[in-house]
Amino acid sequence: VVVRQLTRPHPTWLVRAAIPIRLPIEPVSDWSHTHTQANVGFTFSFPVAQKSITNGVLLSWTKEIATAGVVGNDVVQLLQQALARVGAPGIQVAAICNDTVGTLVATMYQVPDQAKKVVGGLIVGTGSNMAYWEKSKDIVKLPEAAEYCSQMIINMEWGNFDEREKVLPINGYDEAMNEASERKGYQLFEKMISGQYIGELCRLALIDYLRSTWNWGEVSFDRIYSVSGESASIAAHDDTAELTKIEDLFRSKFQSRTTLDMRKGIKQICYTVFKRAARLLAAGVAAIASKTNMQKDCIIGVVGSVWEKNPCVQKECMAALDDIFEQGHGIRLIITPDGSVIGPALIAALHGDH
Fold this sequence. Notes:
The chain has helices spanning 2-7, 31-34, 75-85, 99-110, 172-180, 188-193, 195-214, 229-236, 244-253, 260-291, 305-308, 311-324, 339-351, and strands spanning 38-43, 48-52, 55-58, 91-97, 118-124, 128-135, 151-155, 298-303, 331-335. By secondary structure, the chain is α/β, with parallel strands linked by helices. Helix 4 crosses helix 13, helix 7 (195-214) runs antiparallel to helix 10 (260-291) and helix 8 packs across helix 10 (260-291). It is globular, with a radius of gyration of 22 Å.
């Protein structure tokens, strides 16, 4: 059902681009002495309304960020003003893009002999999103696009898929986390699969398990987000005979003692949360591969810790794709190192004058 819904035109699919800002921006005292001007690519991993390649108005924060005074403003202008304040007015933003767009472009650069097979750029880190190539004539929201080019890259902002809660398999833990989140009712898909939230889902399920099965009263991780995605990953991937990694984790981080039977349940819960995330990712990937009719032979570049540091996510995602495409498929998901940084630089180099 998720695959079918993702494949359909959807009101939350916006043609957007966005830009990562690393703050604080340090003063550049010697810039003017050694440089006159340089063009840069600017990645901002949040939804923006983009009217040109050097303009992006922030629509909303995601991933539990809520910095005041930015929504509704052009983030490129804000960066340019900051650069001027620290003595680097010659640095000019030549292009802004979402990290998914950057990853797609960097993947094409990474495999030049197979660039035409690259259909998407996928982010599975703190947040999750995907961009893909679309035929301009099929972009309903931008009918004039076909006059200028045959294809465009669409930043899907898929984290906000199914905002009306009609498709996704949302359970009580999802509902509890959503209620406590900065933006209730938004980014539901992202909240089920990304690193910002996966630890919290495990925490809620673990509290339920330890209290109902082992009669635990107070738990040391009763504070929201007190179980990180990294801790959940350690538990999910503990392959030691006595599950000693989980034992050490609970003793050192949560000041709690566990039995082997407890640890078996802890591992199963954490692995299941990661497995569900992987299978939901597969649904999104399958939807795009199908929509572009490239499921028999295509490449999708991937960036993000949830994918790169969790072998179970890779394994379960590919297993789910095998389940979806019963007749076989040729979808390859490859890691694109620093794709969200290299991609914007390539775009700036292509577009800029310097």
